[in-house]
Amino acid sequence: MADLRIEPWSAGREAEVAALVAAHPDGLIYYTPAFRRFLLAVVGGECRSRLAIEDGRLTGVLPLLARDGPYGVVLNSLPFFGSNGGILSVSAAAQSALLAEYDRVAAAVAVATWISHPFMDTATPRHSLTDERIAQWTTLAGGALPGSIESSARRNIQKARSEGVTVREAAEALPFLEATHRENMAAIGGRAKPASFFTGLREMTAGRDWRLHLAERQGEPLAALLTFEAATTVEYVMPVVVEAARTLQPTAAILATAMTDASARGFTRWNWGGTWLTQEGVYRFKKKWGADERRYRYFITLNDPSLKQHSAAALAAAYPWYFTLPYASLQPTENGHAH
Length: 339
Fold this sequence. Notes:
CATH superfamily of the largest domain: Gcn5-related N-acetyltransferase (GNAT)
Distance between the termini: 55 Å
CATH topology of the largest domain: Aminopeptidase
Number of domains: 2
Largest sheet: 11 strands, mixed
Strand content: 25-35%
CATH class of the largest domain: Alpha Beta
Number of strands: 15
CATH architecture of the largest domain: 3-Layer(aba) Sandwich
Shape: globular
């Protein structure tokens, strides 16, 4: 029998974690030491990540962040816009031990949420509630645009090229990305990322953990796309576009370049991220770009039922950027709190 133990995250193991993620066929940026540093810089809280060690060798990782607040401790794997969590392991024993550890840790907080790995939703922790998303991704191969991309997307690419739109990598264009993101979100009444999202990128390495593609015409920036990457998966993170330039289709030009470049560098999956079941427009856009799909789940362990008596606004204010409960499960009174 192997000697298997569960340890808290430690700086001394970070090189091993990075190597495990890079070598794993389902490795994602969310398990890396760099993303852990980034996430702590963006959302705050406390790292409670766990590592499985078998005969002295790292065989599994479970990323966990916790945040204390007025209604108790909230545990997420992982917080911030549906960042995926759960277990990444190379051993069934490690997965089993990490799952048991999660159940133990989750039982000691007010509420815990496990956001499943979108491509291998295998482990199921103890839970009280579930929520669901649609994972959408495009398979990359051969250094060319995927054949599954629909004709409408190809026409958009041609339109951009005929209008003289060019694309290049431009890590220095982060100020343009941030400013345009805020404009885009304000235009639709959306929730913009905090300033810490952009400053926190310094915790990761440009050209390794993240890339920024910029679309221009005659030197004028029109659109940009931030992606994260690890192992063989690229994450579609933040697209922005200048409103007056939309008809030039600069986003299509960026996607064509970024997907082709990623494929040429050996990446095999372009992950569009989770889609709500109600987001029909977002779903169709990703589908247009050749996306396959599968459902994956959020597992919520609710230990303090009184949390349901708070409003969505109260929970969001108490635990910014952390997932607490599906808002459909809340039962607030008219003033937002229980009597």
